[in-house]
Amino acid sequence: MISQEKDPGTPATPDAPVGTSRAHPVTLREVAEAAGVSTATVSLVINKKKNARIAEETRERVKTAIRTLGYRPNAMAKTLVSGTSKFIGLVADGVATTPFAGQIIHGAQDEAWKHGYALLIANTEGNLDLENDAINMMLEYKVRGILYSTWFHRTTDIPETLREADFVLVNCFSPVPGAARAVVPDEAQGGQSATEILIRGGHRRIAFINATTPAPARDGRLEGYRAALEAAGIAFDPDLVLEAYPDQEGGYGATAELLKRGVSAVYCYNDRMAMGLYDGLREQGLSIPGDIAVVGFDNQEVIAAHLRPPLSTVSLPHYELGAAGVRLLLGLDEAPVDSALKIECPAIERASVAVPSKA
């Protein structure tokens, strides 16, 4: 290849030292003039064309001019040439405004940075027009791919515009098996871990207060409860499965019916329900865990760690969901062919379940 250099002569004196404000961004031509070379040579150096016949001294002179002038390459121009960018998009329906689910963003952002990408985030609050605009904008920026996330675990329809990109569903999945890569919490494993906390505490008559609202979590957490009982040799009793609305009032309202069952321990669908159950049990003069042990699900820090006693629970792995989504997108991890990649929900044991006596 023929060299693109000009006679260097005496390099031009940069007209704006580092730290000096300028009326316009530094151009490629200004760098070329400062280094005493052609704009083609500057472009070859910037794009690290190793096969270009450019003397090392000339390369260094160009790099010095770039540093001195504070030149920044045009990222959009490079994107048009390469067909992709160093951005990963994240479109969410409410993750950014939900404290514990916001960890999805943190996990995705940290993993993206680790691999040299920046995250573009659009929080749509469920507005379909805004969602469509956000995806179109990301397509225009030629993002490496898009993470499409929901703030609670559920099935989702895949927007048509999303199909124009490489994408991964996070905390949601397509109802059509194999239609899209997805990463979700392992609800059944989480339900089993929650029940096992109580079994390790010596309990055998264990109730489960499930949610009334249909959701993958409702089915998976019940499945895990039954699996833990079976593994421990405890017969499943359908009379010990109650249903309530998954909030504090739901847990409180279930207290009276629960006490008719003569149980020694309760696993609640979520931490808010457990918080209501705490109130109901105390009104009946019962202590936790002395009279009844309680386990929740979600590990909402503003609830679980600050109840008295602190609540044993299972954590939803939001941070790891975001990180795993990026890894799937970049091809660093593989998803099962006909199902979502399931992320473990770790158990958090606190004082709401008494440690069994060793005596």
Describe the structure in your own words.
One of its GO terms (molecular function) is DNA-binding transcription factor activity. InterPro entries: HTH_LacI, Lambda_DNA-bd_dom_sf, Peripla_BP/Lac1_sug-bd_dom, Peripla_BP_I. The chain is of the alpha/beta class. The chain folds into 3 domains: about 1-75, Orthogonal Bundle (434 Repressor (Amino-terminal Domain)); about 80-185 and about 320-345, Rossmann fold, CATH 3.40.50.2300; about 185-315, Rossmann fold (3-Layer(aba) Sandwich). Helices cover about 35% and strands about 15% of the residues. The protein is built from 13 helices and 12 strands. It has helices spanning about 30-35, 40-45, 55-70, 75-80, 105-115, 130-140, 185-200, 215-230, 250-255, 255-260, 270-285, 300-305, 320-330; strands spanning about 85-90, 120-125, 145-155, 165-175, 180-185, 205-210, 240-245, 265-270, 295, 315, 340-345, 345-350. The strands form 3 sheets. Strands 2-1-3-4-5-11 form a 6-stranded parallel β-sheet, with helices on both faces. A 4-stranded parallel β-sheet has the order 7-6-8-9. Strand 1 (about 85-90), helix 5 and strand 2 (about 120-125) form a beta-alpha-beta unit. Helix 1 packs across helix 3, helix 5 (about 105-115) runs parallel beside helix 13 and helix 7 (about 185-200) packs across helix 8. It is elongated. Residues about 1-20 have low confidence and may be disordered.
